[in-house]
Design a protein that fits this description.
Number of domains: 2
Helix content: 10-25%
Strand order of the largest sheet: 1-12-7-9-8
Strand content: 25-35%
Number of strands: 12
Number of helices: 5
Distance between the termini: 22 Å
Oligomer: single chain
Length: 251
Amino acid sequence: MRDSFADLRSLADSQRQPNRREPRQLTGQAMGAGWTILLAEFKGRDRQTRANRLVRQLVLESGVPDLWVEGDEQTTRVLRGVYPSPTIDIAQRDLARTKAIEINGSNPFANAKLIPLGPDGSVISESDYDLRRYSGMLTLQINYYDTEMGPDFRKIAEDAVKALREEGVEAYFYHGPNMSLITVGLFTEEDRVQRVMKTPDGRDFIMAEYSPRVRELQRRFPYSLGNGRTLIDSRNEGEGRPLESFLVRVP
C-alpha cells in the first residue's frame, strides 16, 4: 500500500507545467488566508479589463480602499480586504460600507458578501464539492487532470466530480495552479492506523494501515489515475504495478 500521506497542495502545485493563472493585482493590504468581501465577478475574454476598470472607478470616484483582483481561466473577481474572521467588527463594518456604495443613484454592491479564502489566499468556490472547505480532513485521491487535457482541465475535473456524485459517490475536487485533483470520501486521523511490526531480525518498524471504511472505498477505486489513465507506481516500475489510490490531507 502506498502511504505517502501527501498534502493536496504539494501535489496540485508540483507539476512541471507553468502557472497559467492570471496574475493577482493587489491595490490594498497583503494577501493571506482568511475572508474577503466579494464585490463583483466578470466572465468572458475582457473580464480582466472590466475588473481593472471597476477598481479604478471605485478608487478614484468613491475612495474605496483595499481593493484587489483575483482570477482564474474563467472568472475574474473584484474583492475588498482580507479579514481573519467574517464576524469581527472591521469585516462587518467594511461589508456594510461596501453595500452602501452609491454610483449614479444606485447601490450596485448591495449583494456584496464575505467569502472564505484558501490557504494560498485564493478564493474558495461556493461548491460543497471544493475540498478547500474541509481543511485538515483526509481524503482518498483517485484521479487528476492537468494542462494535457487543455485549458479547461478544471472544468473537466468538476464535471467528473458531478458525474460521480450522480452515481452516489462522495467525490470532491481540489484546484491547484497546475492540476485539479479528484478525491472521494472524507476521513480523520482515526482512519490511518499505525501498527508496530517487527522485521525478520527482530527490529521494530511502523506499518501504516487504512481503516475498514477506507479500504472499502479503495475496493471501488483501487488506483490513482492521471487524466483518466492508469499510472505506474515509480517505486515498482519494473513490475508495472498500477499506482494505488492513497490518502492525502486537505491543507
